[in-house]
Amino acid sequence: MTKGLVIVFGDSTAAKKEDSVRPETGWAECFEGYLAPGWKLLNYAENGMSSKSFVRSGKIEEALLRAEYELKKAEEDEECDTFCAYFIIQFGHNETKTSEDRFSLAEDFRGNIVSKMIHPIMKAGWQSVLLTPIPRFIFTEEGKVVNSFGEYLYTLHDFASDADYFIDIHSLLSDLFEKAGKSKARKCYMNLEKGQCENYKNGRIDNTHLTEDGAAFVAYAIAKTMKEEGLECIR
């Protein structure tokens, strides 16, 4: 039996949320249900993270040590024939933040992900799954989803081949949202009417973060694509 880990590196769009901000939900909170038996999810995504601040946080080293520890446990498990780890990497929402600890130029964005994440993962013997960021809820008058990430999105495509797997979830979700229409896509994001929920009695306009339904939809789309790519971690 193959067992393993799926480890998520990312920002607030994937991170676990406190009850005080619900219904905001990170997509990785909805992902574990798609894992095959013997696999478990470790979510290292955190609110506000850019690729730069994530590198500085020590989370990469922590996750690699955890994977090594789980491998040693698996070697003593008679039911486990093979142990694998997939590292899902998704950044882009916070690269242009003006604070020194988060801002990255596009070329530094590449270095943060390739040199500081993908290469150490590869060296440890694990697999990397690079994702583009989820789109923001911003549409043109013609009903097309806007690329709000500019050159950072294009840069991800430029170094996609450095990862073991590349999933352009931005394009996939953009296509799905455009087909569904703006009014349906809006329900995936934290755009709330006044009185709609207890935590946001005065409503909220947030075109970046996901509702529970939105997170579930994104998690499904990612899992479905990983399954189509043949990753055995997905049931």
From TrEMBL:
Database matches in InterPro entries: RhgT-like, SGNH_hydro_sf
The keyword Protease appears for this protein: no
Keyword line: Hydrolase
Source domain of life: Bacteria
Hydrolase keyword on record: yes
Molecular function GO terms recorded: hydrolase activity, acting on ester bonds
Protein family: Belongs to the 'GDSL' lipolytic enzyme family.
Name used for this protein in its record: SGNH hydrolase-type esterase domain-containing protein
Organism expressing this protein natively: Candidatus Ornithospirochaeta avicola
Upper lineage: Bacteria, Pseudomonadati, Spirochaetota, Spirochaetia, Spirochaetales
